[in-house]
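[Help] Beginner question about ligand-bound structures

Sorry if this is basic. My supervisor gave me a protein sequence and a SMILES string for flavin-adenine dinucleotide and asked me to "get the holo structure". I don't really know what that means in practice or what format the answer should be in. Inputs are pasted below exactly as I got them.
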Amino acid sequence: MITLAVVLCLSWLVWTLSVVWRHRQPRTAVAALQPVLVAYASQTGSARALALQQQLALGGPAQASVMPLSELVPKQLSQVQKAVFVVSTYGDGEPPDNGRRFYRELQALTAASGHSSNGQLFSSLAYDVLALGDSRYPKFCQFGADLYQLLARLGAKASLPLQTRDQQQAAQLTDNPWQSWQLAARTRLNTESQPGLFQLRFTCSEPLPCWRAGDLVAIKPDNNEQATVRRYSVASVPADNELQLVVRQQVTEHGELGLCSGWLTLTAEIGQQVNLQVVANPSCYINEHQAPLLLIAAGSGLAGIRGHLAERAQQAGPGPVWLIYGERDADPNQRLHSELALWQQRGVITMFDWAFSRDSEKPAYVQDVMRNKIDEIKGFIGVSGRVYVCGRYEGMGTAVDTMLRTALGPEEYQQFVAQGRYHRDLY
Ligand SMILES: Cc1cc2nc3c(=O)[nH]c(=O)nc-3n(C[C@H](O)[C@H](O)[C@H](O)COP(=O)(O)OP(=O)(O)OC[C@H]3O[C@@H](n4cnc5c(N)ncnc54)[C@H](O)[C@@H]3O)c2cc1C
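Answer (accepted):
No worries, everyone starts somewhere. Holo just means with the ligand present. The predicted complex, written as structure tokens, is below.
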């Protein structure tokens, strides 16, 4: 009996140490590199899709390796002859989450270059940077531009001037085909007193494409070939046999509905054909379903949350899921409440906090809930927990990020990001 207890204790100790060790290691191990490397940093999948196209254009996998910046350490660049960087810019001119650690390490190498031979560290490296951004922002393609300069300061030779591309064009350059889907149903999830939030269901007579929770779809408003695409987070999984979206009506300053959200939520007839393209977004995939999962969203961010709940529901023995979700109005008659209550009843959501910003008694945003539960959040995330955040970047996305930094502390926060446990679908 005592022997059995000792064996069990030792097994538990070995398992715990292996989990801790695994999660403290930055993901730096790489396969042997081809002479040409295509490295990408992608927040919404566009840069990854372009990187795969670049790989094909450079002769395919036999000639060019492709990998996210999260799996690359700067010194490995001295092993390749040429590196092509395809990088998005995120937030206020920052790198996407899967490029942050690489960028910090490159900055540190550059800072040290004044005191050492780092100034010529990459003297045998040729490179190009293809930067993606949104031209409406003043820091358009800022991360790509910074990367371009840092590499030059470390001795690498640029083959071309910095290439920039507007994200609206990039969204059209993904590997999946456009398909015709039928708008099968449209349900209002909130009350009339707020800007409409609608659940849309689409069916397709062709074989369904593959997609996963975390992916996006691109839509041309009103099926107009000339219109700039809009992207939406997928709210279902293929096992649902339908593609779901959750769309918030955008109201312009003149009080009109936005072009695409107005079409999808009001003017498109039920039964109407809608051209959709599924856009892979691997930075939002959650692969470890036994680990705790903290989901945070507000408003239309429900879309990505719903996709992940549907994926989690298919797993055997899934880990705990804590949802923190914000909407304006506390009215319990909203469809939103019954939709989320269903996931709770099924046991997929194990902990749930609402935040209602227009509540007359206790107005709160998701970040207020986080502030009040900061120690619980740290404990819940632990060494293996994952966090997925979906919704608006301004306001919610930035405030949630600040709260996570506070909860985890600067060093643990950096490790958590570098380990790819922070997934953000923010817009
Ligand atoms: C990764 C991602 C995921 C998203 N997920 C969701 C989601 O799940 N649910 C949701 O409701 N929304 C989501 N959005 C927002 C969505 O893509 C639209 O921006 C939103 O629906 C408003 O579009 P609209 O056409 O109705 O509004 P509009 O006001 O007509 O347009 C809004 C934006 O579209 C672009 N645009 C409009 N006209 C033009 C033009 N002529 N040329 C170039 N650009 C133009 C501009 O960026 C403009 O600010 C997501 C956005 C991104 C980037």
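A couple of things worth pointing out: Residues 8 and 91 are 48 Å apart (CA to CA). The two ends are 58 Å apart (CA to CA). Feel free to follow up in the thread.
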